Amino acid sequence: xxxxxRFRLLERLAALAGQSVQALQAAVVFLTRVPLPFPARPPxxxxxxxxxxFPLVGGLVxxxxxxxxxxxxxxxxxPPPVAALLTLGGGALLTGALHEDGLADAADGLGxxxxxxxxxxxxxxxxxxxxxxxxxxLVLGLRLAALAALVEPVRVVVALVAAESFSRAILPGLGYxxxxxxxxxxxVSHGRASxxxxxxxxxxxxxxxxxxxxxxxxxxxxxVVVAGGGVAVAAAMGRLGMARLGGVTGDLxxxxxxxxxTLILLLLARG
Length: 271
What we know:
By secondary structure, this protein is mainly alpha-helical. Helix content is 79%, strand content 0%. It has twelve helices and no strands.
């Protein structure tokens, strides 16, 4: 390889590294309330590229939530149920309750909509209805119970990282395999994930699970169960969106994340 070729290769690698950092930064800005600097005029494809980093951001969110649990139990001496409640509150603050809001809106629309148009109209209403309240109560209650049942801080750390990362790893694939329900929704304005982005996000999610297996915090069988549970939720929500709405929406993606994370925590709490 000539010096000029090596230089071009290094230049290309530096550009790819810069794009990857930018995509991760965009994912953090989109999924959390962390005030990272971001260009006023980002590249047109940055939202799509950021989707590949969703499981990485999810892992960071899970780690932050685990830190809250550890402080609540190890420093403050709170019992597991109280620590679990504080952990869920910390996660909601960190993410701005983005996906919880999607869960409530999706429940209201799917539960109260007479048809697709009516359901989509309800989901755009910022007010929360009875279906949304019940959905939030049930999902947050199940997550709290699962975290409290795990008891040991190490198990809680592993469970939160696995649940928060893989529940976000499924979202690009859900947007790729199922069309947007609205012509003016996020899937149209921000772009749908490509097959490559969806595959990369899934691969990163699996790599995080493999890392948890490697450090001994997660069994191989548990990792398979986590991945299978996440994929099952994504497939079920995609089919439900197609049947009721003619596609998926941002609210449906948020609901999928919440349901997948809840199912994963419950499966891990079972042992």
